[in-house]
Design a protein that fits this description.
- The chain is an alpha+beta fold.
- The protein has 2 domains: 215 residues, no CATH class; 307 residues, Distorted Sandwich (Beta-galactosidase, Chain A, domain 5), CATH 2.70.98.
- 36% of the residues lie in helices and 26% in strands.
- Strands 1, 2, 3, 4, 5, 6, 10, 13, 16, 17 and 18 form an 11-stranded mixed sheet that branches. An 8-stranded antiparallel sheet has the order 7-8-9-19-15-14-11-12.
- A hairpin with an 8-residue loop joins β3 and β4.
- The longest helix is centred in the C-terminal third of the chain and has 28 residues.
- It is elongated.
C-alpha cells in the first residue's frame, strides 16, 4: 500500500469516527410514536384533567411505606422572580419548582448579548425543569403539584450581598414544610432545603424526592454529535449514561449511598447532588402519554420519621450552568466527567487544561488553539519527520514506478516483484509513513474532543470570527483548509492509479464542504496543523530531492 492510499484511508476513517454516533441517532431504532387524541395545544395545557406521570412511583427503600397515588396535573401558581449576578430564575409557587433559569454570562448568540440562554424552561413544545417535593403514604406531604406561599414575589441580590435565600411555605393538618432555595454570588450551585415541622398530634413519616424532567431536544446537529440525556453517578457504578430510549425501555431503580444525577447537553448541564452519606434511590421515569413527551431522572431519600413537636430537614444541592471543569471538580466526585471527552479523556483533559492556560497567557482562544497545535507538532516532530521522509523518498521514485507499470502492464505479480526490488535497491520502506500516522490519530482525536467540549470557546472571538464554537460565517477557514490539503497532495507521492488520483483531487473539495459546518475553532486547528505540516514536509522533501538527506 502506498502512502497516498494510506492518507486517503486515514482521512476517511477519521471522518467516520467523527460522525458515527450521529449516524446512530439518525438511523438507529426510533421509539414508536404515541397517538394523540387531542390537539397538541390542549395536551400542553397544564389545567387539563389528567394523571401526572412524573411523580416517583418507586419500589420502597427499607422501612418505607408504598408511595401515594399520583395527583392530577394543575395549572401554574404565582411566579417568583429571583436574580443574582449570574442567573435569572423563575420559581412557580405550585410545587415550589424552578421552571426557568437563564444564564446572564451566556447570551443566546453574539448578536443578542442581552438575550440570555435559558437552560431551564417550560414551554408548550419543550420542557426542562427541576422538580422536588416530599412523599408520604399516610400523612400530608407537598409534591411539586401542591401550592406554596411566599413572603414576596421578587428577590434580587444586592451589591456586596453574597447569599440570597428564597423561602416557601406549605402547611396542612399541622404539618408545616419550609422549602428554601439558597443562591450564592458568582455561583451556579443552589442549596435546597426541606424543613418539616410536625405541629400535629401523630408522627410524620416521609421522604424527599428531587428530579430533573425534560423533553427530547427539538433538533440536533447532523455534523457534530454531543450527548443529550441523563447520567447517574456513585462510587460503585461510577459514571453511567441513561438515554431517553433507555428510560422508555426499562426504568432505572438503583439504591446508592450518595452520588448525583444530571441531564447533559452540549456545554451545559443540570444536576442534583446528594450528601455523601445520604441513602438514596436513583430512578428514571418516561412519560410518553402527553405532548411533549418527558423523561425524568431523580433521586429519592430514605424515610425520615418526625415525632409530634419535632422537626427534620432534607438537604441537597442543585447545579444548573456551564460545564466548567474546575468548578465541577469542587462540587462532587465525578461531576467533572460530564465534560465528556470520551475514551480519550486521559489525553483530552490535559490538552484542555493546557489550552486554557495558553488562553490566560495570550488572552485569546484563537491564538491559544494555534499555540496548542504548534506544541503538539513539536512533540510529534520526530514521528512526523519519519513519515515525511518516507513520503519524500516515495515521491522521488514515482517516475520509476510509473515506468515499471508501463513495462509490465497487467502482470501485477511481476510488477510487484520489480517494485520490491526497487524499494530494496533504494532502501525505501513503502510503509515507513504508516506507523507515525497511526500513532498520531489518537492525539488528533483527543484534540478534537478537547476543543468540542470546551464551553469557554462558546462566543470566543478571533480576527473576523465572532464565535469559535459556531461555523465560520464567511467560510474562509474551510476554504483555507481545502487549499492546504491540495498543497499537501502536491508534496505527497503521486498516485499511479488514475482513479485513485481523481479521488484524491476531489478530497480537498469534499473536506472543505464538510468542515464548512464545523465550529470555527475546530477548523482553525486543522488549518494551523496543515500549515505547520506543509512547512515541515516541504523542507524535508526539498532536502531529500536535492540529495542533502540520504
Amino acid at each position: 500500500m502506498d502512502n497516498t492510499r494510506l492518507f486517503l484511508y486515514a482521512a476517511l476513517a477519521f471522518v467516520s469516527l467523527l460522525i458515527w454516533e450521529q449516524w446512530q441517532v439518525d438511523y438507529g431504532p426510533k421509539p414508536a410514536a404515541t397517538e394523540q387524541s387531542q390537539p397538541a395545544a390542549n395536551a400542553a395545557n397544564a389545567s387539563t384533567a389528567q394523571k401526572a406521570g412524573d411523580l416517583p412511583e418507586l419500589e420502597p427503600l427499607p422501612d418505607e411505606a408504598p408511595a401515594a397515588q399520583d395527583k392530577p396535573v394543575a395549572a401554574s401558581g404565582e411566579l417568583i422572580r429571583v436574580e443574582t449576578d449570574v442567573v435569572e430564575v423563575t420559581i412557580d409557587t405550585r410545587g415550589g419548582v424552578i421552571q426557568s433559569l437563564k444564564l446572564k454570562k451566556y447570551p443566546v448568540d453574539v448578536d443578542h448579548p442581552d438575550q440570555y440562554l435559558e437552560l431551564l424552561y417550560k414551554r408548550p413544545e419543550e420542557v426542562h425543569v427541576l422538580q422536588n417535593g416530599l412523599r408520604s403514604a399516610d400523612a400530608p406531604a407537598p409534591t411539586h403539584y401542591d401550592v406554596f406561599s411566599a413572603p414576596q414575589s421578587e428577590y434580587r441580590m444586592a451589591e456586596g450581598q453574597d447569599e440570597l435565600r428564597v423561602p416557601l411555605r406549605w402547611e396542612k393538618d399541622g404539618i408545616e414544610v419550609i422549602k428554601t432555595y439558597v443562591f450564592r454570588r458568582g455561583d451556579y450551585l443552589v442549596n435546597l432545603k426541606h424543613r418539616v415541622n410536625n405541629n400535629g398530634e401523630g408522627e410524620w413519616k416521609g421522604s424527599e424526592y428531587r428530579q430533573i424532567t425534560r423533553s427530547r431536544p427539538l433538533s440536533t446537529s447532523r455534523f457534530l454529535y454531543t450527548y443529550t440525556g441523563a447520567v447517574v453517578y456513585n462510587e460503585e457504578i461510577k459514571y453511567e449514561k441513561v438515554s431517553f430510549d433507555d428510560m422508555e425501555e426499562k426504568p432505572l431503580r438503583l439504591e446508592s449511598n450518595g452520588g448525583w444525577v444530571a441531564m447533559l447537553q452540549h456545554y451545559f448541564l443540570s444536576a442534583i447532588v446528594a450528601r455523601p452519606d445520604e441513602k438514596i434511590l436513583f430512578y428514571t421515569l418516561a412519560n410518553t402519554r402527553q405532548l411533549p413527551k418527558t423523561y425524568t431522572v431523580g433521586m429519592k431519600s430514605a424515610v425520615q420519621t418526625v415525632a409530634p413537636g419535632q422537626s427534620t430537614e432534607f438537604d441537597s444541592e442543585l447545579f444548573v450552568g456551564p460545564k466548567l471543569v474546575d468548578r465541577l471538580e469542587e462540587i462532587a466526585p465525578g461531576l467533572e466527567l460530564t465534560v465528556d471527552y470520551g475514551v480519550l479523556t486521559f489525553l483530552s483533559k490535559p490538552m484542555a487544561w493546557y489550552m486554557s492556560w495558553l488562553n490566560k497567557l495570550v488572552g485569546n482562544w484563537g491564538l491559544a488553539i494555534i499555540l496548542l497545535t504548534l506544541t503538539v507538532k513539536l512533540l510529534l516532530f520526530k514521528l512526523s519527520e519519519t513519515s515525511y521522509k518516507s513520503m519524500a523518498r516515495m515521491r522521488k521514485l514515482t517516475p520509476r514506478l510509473k515506468a515499471l507499470k508501463e513495462r509490465y502492464g497487467d502482470d501485477r505479480q511481476r510488477m510487484n516483484q520489480a517494485m520490491m526490488e526497487l524499494y530494496k535497491e533504494e532502501k525505501v520502506n513503502p510503509m515507513g509513513g504508516c506507523l507515525p500516522m497511526v500513532v498520531q490519530v489518537p492525539i488528533f482525536l483527543a484534540l478534537y474532543w478537547s476543543l468540542l467540549e470546551n464551553v469557554e470557546l462558546r462566543q470566543a472571538t478571533f480576527l473576523w470570527i465572532r464565535d469559535l464554537s459556531a461555523m465560520d460565517p464567511y467560510y474562509i477557514l474551510p476554504i483555507l483548509m481545502g487549499a492546504s490539503m491540495l498543497i499537501q497532495q502536491k508534496l505527497n507521492p503521486a498516485p499511479t492509479d488514475p482513479m485513485q488520483a481523481k479521488v484524491m483531487m476531489a478530497l480537498p473539495l469534499v473536506f472543505s464542504v464538510f468542515f464548512a459546518f464545523f465550529p470555527a475553532g475546530l477548523v482553525l486547528y486543522w488549518v494551523a496543523n496543515n500549515t505547520l505540516s506543509i512547512a515541515q514536509q516541504w523542507i524535508i522533501t526539498r532536502r531529500i530531492e536535492s540529495g542533502e538527506d540520504k
